Amino acid sequence: MPLSQTSAVTPDAVDRIGLSLAAQLDAEPLQAFDDGPVERVGAILNSTTSITRDDVLEGLDETDAGFADLVRKAIFTFANIPKRIAPRDIPRVVRELEQEVLLIASAGAEAAGVKPSADFILENMSGRMADQLREEVEELEKVKPAEVEEAMSTIITTIREMEASGDLLLVVDDNDDD
Q1: Which part of the chain is the Flagellar motor switch protein FliG C-terminal domain (predicted)?
Q2: For residue 61, how many C-alpha atoms fall within 13 Å in the half-sphere facing its CB?
Q3: What's the CATH fold of domain 78-172?
Q4: Whole-number Cα distances in Å, 18 to 8, 29, 50, 56, 103
Q5: Taking the model in full, what pTM does it have?
Q6: HSE of 166 in the Cβ direction (CA atoms, 13 Å)?
Q7: Domain spans of the chain?
Q8: Among candidates 45, 159, 32, which has minimal Cα distance to 94?
Q9: Are 156 and 48 contacting, i.e. CB atoms less than 8 angstroms apart?
């Protein structure tokens, strides 16, 4: 209806239109989740083992590649540390961790395919502590993959907790194609 023809609209009609619009707004269903599907799947995959995470992402690639890409950007794993943590923040993260956790994660990083992340941590912590950790890694006997996974998970959990409390900001790269 053109605006020029609205002169005959009664106040009662306007009231009914308003009530109808209000009823439609109230009819919005309550949402079961605060976050969207990308964030929910990302949070789940953040707390799974790397094998499970890779399997799920592979399956998502086959069924919905666009969604899989968004989930990859939402997750934060040990492999993401060099891209998502500012070098200046590594000493603060390290202070929150037990040295044994760093030792096991560093010792198993190459076998787990995440040596660049372990190197990034070592390069950005105090030189003396990094040298000591490198020596201990060389002296350490072979560590079990499950122990390495647990140590890396502890590091990621600590980083996530620091982020949630506002003690750390993760770097967000919107141009990241990984």
Answers
A1: 59-169
A2: 8
A3: Annexin V; domain 1 (1.10.220)
A4: 17, 20, 53, 47, 65
A5: 0.70
A6: 0
A7: 35-75, 78-172
A8: 159
A9: no
**What is the Cα–Cα distance from 2 to 38, expressed in whole angstroms?**
43
Q: Which long-range contacts link 113-117 to residues 24+ away (Cβ below 8 Å)?
A: 113/79, 114/78, 114/79, 114/152, 116/79, 116/82, 117/78, 117/79, 117/80, 117/81, 117/82
pLDDT tens-digit series, residues 57-77: 999 999 999 998 888 888 888
Copy the structure tokens of residue 116. Answer: 């660049």
Report pLDDT digits (tens) over 9-66: 788 888 888 888 888 777 767 666 677 888 888 888 887 877 888 899 999 999 999 9
Is there a contact between 162 and 96 (Cβ–Cβ < 8 Å)?
A: yes
Is the CB of residue 122 less than 8 Å from the CB of residue 130?
Answer: yes
21 burial type by CB count under 10 A (0-12 exposed, 13-18 middle, 19+ buried) = exposed
CATH 1.20.5 fits 35-75, yes or no: yes
Given a contact cutoff of 8 angstroms between Cβ atoms, the answer to whether 93 and 85 are in contact is yes
